[in-house]
Structure formats: structure tokens, C-alpha cells
Design goal:
globular, about 400 residues, alpha+beta, about 25% strand
């Protein structure tokens, strides 16, 4: 068995690439900051919140470590950091999808194939030692992390929920023998001046046929009462279960997401659909785009980053909004419930002055999701890919 490549050297063209495992908190900080430094002058990249990243990579704070294991690696040349990657095994996803895959995530590298090869070889060996037979990514611990490498749309502004990367990244992976495993597309959707007539008709038919009703949360307290917020995330578990690589959120994960997201949401931009028994069967969750605010904050809350983020949420909204997620219970999918959601949300978007919406990632083969945009003016403007390779 080969030794773990935490201190290995790879060399080409007289330039050695050294791979080191992240072992200390200061090294983890360098791991996070490398992305900020690489994309400091890129107008399309949106930095992650530094504080969020520290929590994400912490086994004590991230509940995904209940069923995941991970290590992080940095690539050095001549003492300078030139790349980074996370190696992850999501045991729950592997069990669900009957495979033995090691994931690579949070990967960045300079335009030097020796660096990208060294990083991915490191993940591959780390996975082999743990009995894995394939490598795939970019993927995070779960679907709630950003996933997929950008392959189209390099001159489009990224979002807080997605990854930006330079065009040479996928070129490296292709040359290194990686193949497409799945693609996600992203759409720019224009907010209409009026709700499409067909939407109105479908919404009315669906409402009457199935006894559905719209529910709006009046305040944050109501979101917590009766475990409403928890039920929303349980619905997401059911709705997303068939999607590529998905692993169900645990109770601890749901608690964390409720605690993280509910306080920052504008509840006007959240719509819930209930059936006659009061069960939540669909939800649409959106928020003002935070992309420009995160750029101004440079990914940090302090000293003034919090002000940029709060302004974007409350007073100086961008003309773009983010559709964080649309989830419909499986037994109601394909029945027009999406029309009911957007019949409620479109007037809200109009009132708040939004002109466009970012769909964020949607699997290209998920026809039920793709078909919901047919009544709106929209353009597919970004595509990202999960790559895979046999070990």
C-alpha cells in the first residue's frame, strides 16, 4: 500500500510541487484564503464568507461529519501555495447510491497541469486507502454545499450558492482523463410585468383540484412554531432524494440550516403550499442577490462586511434575486404546483423592484424543473459539471 501523500513531491520542468496535508488552524486559514487571493481581481467570482468556511471545515461544527470524513491538502511550489483541494468520503451518499466514491471539493490551482495532477492524485490515493473505486467532483460534503465546476458562462457573475473557476480548470481535468458525470445548468429568468395567463389558469386548477392553499409566514416566530421550518427541510429531503449524489439531511443538519437561514430570509420571498390537511407539499425560497455585497465585503463579516450584507438584504437590493430552492413533494411533482408558487411570488418580486432571477443549479436532465421556466423569458447562461474517473 502506498503511503498517504501528505508530504509528497511531484516534479516536472524542474519545478517541484509539494503536497502537504492541512494539520493546523493556521494552515486551514491559508487553505481558505488561497481562493480569495486567486480571485481577488476577478469581477465574476463571489467569495464565500470566511466565517462560514471555518465552520464548514470543522468536524466539531459541521454536522455532515456524522457521516463524512475529510482531509484538506495544499500544493506548494518553491514555498508558495499554488493549489488546494478537499478529499471527502460521504458514506451516506455512497450507501444510498451503491458506490464507493471519494469526492474532491474546494479545488483551486494555478494554470500548471503538474499542480492539478498532484492535487487530484492525492485525493485518489487518499480514497484508495479507504477502499474507494472512483473519484468525483467538485462536490462538497452534501448537496447544501456548492458543487460542480463551471464549464460555460465564465463572464457571468457567480452567486453565493455556486462556485466560480477560471476556464482552464475543466481543460485540466479533461486532459487528466476525467469524464462528465452530471451537468447542472443555470438560468437568468426575467421577471414578467404580469403573471403569465397560463400560470394563472394552472394555479387555479391545481388549487381547486387538490384542495391546496398558499401560506405566508408573518414573522420569524411563526417559522419556528409547530416546527414549520423543520418541515420545510424535511420536504427538501423528500423532493431532492432522487437527484445526483444526494444524501438526506440529518436532524442535526436540519437544525443547523434552520438556525442559519431563517433569521436572514425576507419572509415575503418565501412561499409555502399546503394541502387540505395542513401538510407542506411545496415551497419556494428566494432572497435578494448577495453577490455584489459579498464582493464588497471581501468574504468577511468584519470590520464592515456585515454592513454591505445587511444593506443588500434590507435597503440597497440588487436588481437580481436568487432562487435558493424550489421543492415539491414527489407525489405532487409534475402537477402544476410550481405555477401556484410563482403566481404568489411574482407580485412580490415586482413590488420589491427585481428585474431578474438566478435559478442557481438545476440538473440538466431534471425535466420537471426545466419545464417550469417555459412560460418565462429566460436564458441558459451558465453550465457546471461534476467529473468522475475510475481509480
Amino acid at each position: 500500500m502506498l503511503p498517504l501523500p501528505s508530504e509528497r513531491l511531484f516534479s516536472q520542468n524542474n519545478m517541484a510541487t509539494e503536497i502537504k496535508k492541512v494539520k493546523t488552524k493556521s494552515e486551514l486559514k491559508r487553505f481558505i484564503r488561497f481562493n480569495y487571493e486567486m480571485y481577488r481581481d476577478c469581477p465574476y467570482s463571489v467569495p464565500d464568507l470566511y466565517e462560514d468556511m471555518l465552520s464548514t471545515f470543522s468536524a466539531k461544527k459541521n454536522p455532515a461529519f456524522e457521516f463524512c470524513e475529510a482531509e484538506y491538502f495544499l500544493a506548494y511550489q518553491d514555498g508558495r501555495i499554488v493549489g488546494r483541494v478537499a478529499a471527502i468520503v460521504n458514506h451516506r451518499a455512497n450507501e444510498t447510491w451503491k458506490k464507493r466514491a471519494v469526492r474532491f471539493g474546494w479545488i483551486d490551482f494555478i494554470d500548471d497541469e503538474e499542480v492539478s495532477r498532484a492535487l487530484l492524485n492525492t485525493v485518489a490515493e487518499w480514497g484508495r486507502v479507504r477502499g474507494m473505486t472512483e473519484i468525483e467532483g467538485p462536490l462538497g460534503f452534501t448537496d447544501m454545499d456548492a458543487e460542480g465546476m463551471l464549464v460555460e458562462g465564465f463572464e457571468e457573475l457567480s452567486t453565493m450558492a455556486t462556485i466560480y473557476n477560471f476556464p482552464y480548470y475543466p481543460e485540466h481535468l479533461t486532459r487528466l482523463g476525467f469524464e462528465k458525470a452530471a451537468d447542472w445548468v443555470e438560468r437568468k429568468i426575467f421577471i414578467p410585468d404580469a403573471i403569465p395567463e397560463k400560470h394563472l389558469r394552472i394555479a387555479e386548477i391545481v388549487k381547486k383540484k387538490y384542495g391546496l392553499r398558499i401560506r405566508k409566514l408573518k414573522n420569524k416566530k411563526e417559522a419556528y412554531e409547530g416546527d414549520t421550518a423543520r418541515h420545510i427541510f424535511e420536504l427538501i429531503n423528500d423532493a431532492f432524494a432522487p437527484l445526483y449524489g444526494y444524501s438526506r439531511m440529518t436532524n442535526r443538519q436540519i437544525d443547523q440550516y434552520v438556525k442559519t437561514f431563517i433569521p436572514i430570509l425576507d419572509l415575503r420571498m418565501v412561499t409555502i403550499v399546503e394541502d387540505a390537511e395542513g401538510e407542506i407539499i411545496a415551497t419556494g425560497i428566494s432572497m435578494p442577490s448577495m453577490s455584489r455585497a459579498l464582493q464588497k465585503a471581501h468574504g468577511k463579516l468584519f470590520p464592515l462586511g456585515w454592513w454591505h450584507l445587511l444593506s443588500a438584504l434590507k435597503w440597497k437590493r440588487d436588481e437580481m434575486l436568487d432562487l435558493l430552492l424550489v421543492a415539491v413533494r414527489p407525489d405532487f411533482q409534475g402537477k402544476g404546483v410550481n405555477a401556484l408558487l410563482f403566481t404568489d411570488l411574482i407580485p412580490v418580486y415586482q413590488k420589491l423592484g427585481f428585474r431578474y432571477a438566478e435559478s442557481n443549479v438545476e440538473l440538466e436532465l431534471n425535466n420537471k424543473v426545466q419545464s417550469q421556466w417555459q412560460y418565462f423569458e429566460n436564458q441558459e447562461h451558465k453550465r457546471r459539471r461534476c467529473f468522475r474517473k475510475e481509480l
